[in-house]
Amino acid sequence: MTTGSEPRHAAHETVEERLAEEVVEELDLHAVDDPKDEEEPFPSMSEQIAEQLGGVRGLIESSLPVLTFVVLNVVLGDTVAGLEKRTALYWAIGGAVFTALAIGGFRLARKQPVRHAVNGLFGIAVGAFLAWRTGKAEDFYLPGILLTFAQAAALLVSVVVRKPIIGYVWGIMANKGRQDWFGNARLFRTFQWLTLVWVASLSVRAGIQFVLYQMGEANALGITRILISWPIYAATFAFTAWAIHRVTSTQPKETAV
Fold first, then answer.
1. φ, ψ for residue 56 (rounded to 5)?
2. What burial class does residue 62 get, using C-beta atoms within 10 Å of its C-beta: 0-12 exposed, 13-18 middle, 19+ buried?
3. What is the rounded distance in angstroms from the CA atom of residue 108 to the CA atom of residue 245?
4. Sequence ranges of the domains in the chain
5. What are the tens digits of pLDDT across the range 13-24?
6. Least CB-packed of 6, 74, 151, 221 within 10 Å?
7. Are 186 and 248 in contact (CB under 8 A)?
8. Closest CA to 131 of 221, 226, 229
């Protein structure tokens, strides 16, 4: 086909396309990549740990209601103020619940995440109800003790059925939701024994508190819960991260963290 013999509509399309290209070039109307379209970097294991623990602030906030309960129960009880045991207990319960509510309200007012505060408030509320019903200060800590034992049992069962929970947690937290570690024998073994480490850690925490609960040592139980629970939890989490990194750092890039 010779020049100038193209169909009229084809010639018009060519001219229009050229005009459009010139306008785009002149006005710099090329599409701009939206940063939102880029995949956000997945948080590192350390960042995930910090988020789960809530940082130093999360540690303080989770301990304040328990600390309030212990202090009020001691100060208002026979030891200092000399109030009747049940009266002192009610004040301690009220103080713990008020502290938990105040923390949640403060976070809401500042438009900050309240997940840790809500979880803490639920546990405080259940413990406070039990202590109020029975009149025993040590019952304030019973839900937390039973929950910790239940977590240890669930982890142990997951090892027995060869589906270690720590592996699933790692897949969600550090492997972009992929659970492809089942095909990696070394990672699978690592998650099996790490899950057992968590079973031991949780059992120690709950066991010490349960002994004090059986002895009726409410104040010692509260102090022990504050002093040992978070350090043991943080140490176990840090060891878990180290052990997993030690394995994944030697794996091919597609399976490493």
1. -65, -40
2. buried
3. 36
4. 45-248
5. 555 555 455 544
6. 6
7. no
8. 221
Q: What pLDDT shows up at residue 156?
A: 97
> What would the pLDDT profile of 34-45 be if each residue is shown by its tens digit?
444 444 444 444
Look up the pTM and report it. 0.69
Q: Spell out the residues 6+ positions from residue 186 whose beta carbon is closer than 8 angstroms to its own.
A: 247, 251
Instruction: Convert 197-211 to b/e letters by CB count within 10 Å (16 or more is b).
Output: ebbebbbebbebbbe
Report the alpha-carbon distance of residue 232 to residue 197 in Å, rounded: 11
| pLDDT at 62 exceeding the cut of 60 | yes
Long-range contacts of 161-167 (CB under 8 A, 24+ apart): 162/192, 164/188, 164/191, 164/192, 164/194, 164/195, 165/195, 166/191, 166/194, 166/195, 166/198, 166/240, 167/191, 167/195
In whole angstroms, give the CA distance from residue 186 to residue 247. 8
Torsion of CA 64, 69, 74, 76, to 10 degrees: 120
pLDDT at 119: 63
